[in-house]
Amino acid sequence: MSVAANLSASRKMVQQLRCELDIKRLKVSQAATDLKQFCLQNAQHDPLLTGIHPNTNPFRPAKPCLLL
Fold first, then answer.
1. Where are the chain's structural domains?
2. Membrane-spanning regions, if any (predicted)?
């Protein structure tokens, strides 16, 4: 690796580290608490937990067509 390439790679690394320095970080315990609270607050709107009403289910089986 040439000196110029090494210098360029080092500058990119320093720039990336400076960007990451400004990121606000949360403790994992706080993030887990927030996520749990969000899930509990929105559980009543989750169709995977409450089910889908048969009249509004877009994936219900199609009714057979009867022609007389």
1. 3-56
2. none
Is pTM beyond 0.85? Reply is no
Per-residue model confidence as pLDDT tens digits over 48-66: 888 888 888 888 887 777 7
**Residue 15: both structure tokens together:** 């720039």
**Hey, what are 61's tokens?**
């089986």
Residues in Cβ contact with 54 at an 8 Å cutoff, skipping those fewer than 6 apart: 60
Apex 36 CA angle, 32 and 41, nearest 5: 150
